[in-house]
């Protein structure tokens, strides 16, 4: 508890004032350099010979405004697939990671199956998985299936392989002494995993998981190849009507606005972990 009568010395006050001035100067220099760089880039681009034509075909304000409602409606479909995929990927990836961390020869078939799954789906491009699931499963069952379901399944199969490796690495990064101490206290395997291992692993694997989430946000746009009228397909339709590529810019802006909060959150959390490690805290 801080003593209310405590007052910093004059030297400490001068140091704090100096650090505050340096911080303000750094911010001002950063803003000025950013504005200068952006100005140079802008002047260079607008003075290129084909800028007028590019501006008309890619950055037309009237086309942007007219195509936004339809592209937005398609973007809502992307958000729907993304929401379902986040839940299913989390469950499947955690299950695969746990299978790969099982000990003992009796669990070798499960470990081999999980390893084969991650090897296969990390090696196959997502667009091929979308074709295989989107075209193969309806033909196999001989019935129509929702594109949302097919897209969610394809994204889950691919991203579960990547996310499971992140989770497995986080689990294995926890020192074995933590497991041994928990077992010595009488905790079973499940309780040790849930109360001791996973909470520590989660802090280590959160930044890479956020990066995978950002990648997933972009890749949900690939469901357009299955015929879904998402943001990308809506932009394609609008472009075919006006012969103007601005609708693609509209879709790009929506995806960027979706990704920025997650990217900034990942950077903030990574910086916070770095500060705690430098302070000697247990992370």
TrEMBL record:
InterPro entries: AA_ABC_transptr_permease_3TM (IPR010065), ArtM/GltK/GlnP/TcyL/YhdX-like (IPR043429), MetI-like (IPR000515), MetI-like_sf (IPR035906). It is a multi-pass membrane protein. Its main location: membrane. One of its GO terms (molecular function) is transmembrane transporter activity. It is found in: Cell membrane. Residues 75-266 form the ABC transmembrane type-1 domain. One of its GO terms (biological process) is amino acid transport. The chain crosses the membrane at residues 26-45, 81-99, 120-141, 245-266. GO terms for cellular component: ATP-binding cassette (ABC) transporter complex. Keywords: Amino-acid transport, Cell membrane, Membrane, Transmembrane, Transmembrane helix, Transport. NCBIfam families: HEQRo_perm_3TM. Belongs to the binding-protein-dependent transport system permease family. HisMQ subfamily. PANTHER family: GLUTAMINE TRANSPORT SYSTEM PERMEASE PROTEIN GLNP (PTHR30614:SF20), MEMBRANE COMPONENT OF AMINO ACID ABC TRANSPORTER (PTHR30614). This is Polar amino acid ABC transporter, inner membrane subunit. It comes from uncultured Microbacterium sp.
């Amino acid at each position: 508890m801080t003593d209310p009568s405590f007052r910093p010395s004059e030297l400490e006050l001068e140091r704090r004032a100096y650090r505050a001035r340096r911080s303000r100067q750094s911010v001002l220099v950063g803003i000025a350099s950013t504005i200068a760089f952006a100005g140079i880039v802008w002047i260079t681009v607008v003075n290129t010979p084909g800028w007028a034509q590019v501006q008309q075909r890619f950055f037309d304000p009237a086309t942007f405004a007219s195509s936004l409602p339809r592209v937005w409606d398609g973007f809502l479909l992307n958000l729907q697939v993304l929401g379902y995929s986040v839940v299913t990927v989390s469950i499947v990836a955690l299950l695969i990671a746990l299978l790969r961390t099982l000990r003992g020869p009796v669990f070798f078939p499960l470990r081999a199956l999980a390893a084969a799954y991650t090897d296969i789906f990390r090696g196959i491009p997502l667009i091929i998985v979308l074709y295989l699931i989107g075209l193969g499963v309806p033909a196999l069952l001989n019935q129509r299936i929702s594109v949302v379901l097919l897209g969610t399944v394809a994204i889950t199969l691919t991203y579960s392989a990547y996310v499971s490796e992140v989770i497995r690495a986080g689990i294995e990064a926890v020192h074995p002494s933590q497991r041994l101490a928990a077992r010595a206290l009488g905790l079973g395997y499940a309780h040790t995993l849930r109360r001791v291992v996973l909470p520590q692993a989660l802090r280590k694997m959160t930044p890479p998981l956020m990066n995978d989430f950002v990648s997933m946000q972009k890749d949900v746009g690939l469901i357009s190849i299955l015929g879904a009228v998402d943001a990308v397909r809506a932009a394609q339709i609008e472009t075919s009507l006006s012969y103007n590529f601005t609708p693609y810019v509209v879709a790009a802006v929506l995806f960027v606005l979706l990704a920025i909060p997650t990217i900034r959150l990942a950077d903030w959390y990574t910086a916070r972990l770095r500060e705690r490690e430098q302070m000697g805290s247990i992370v």
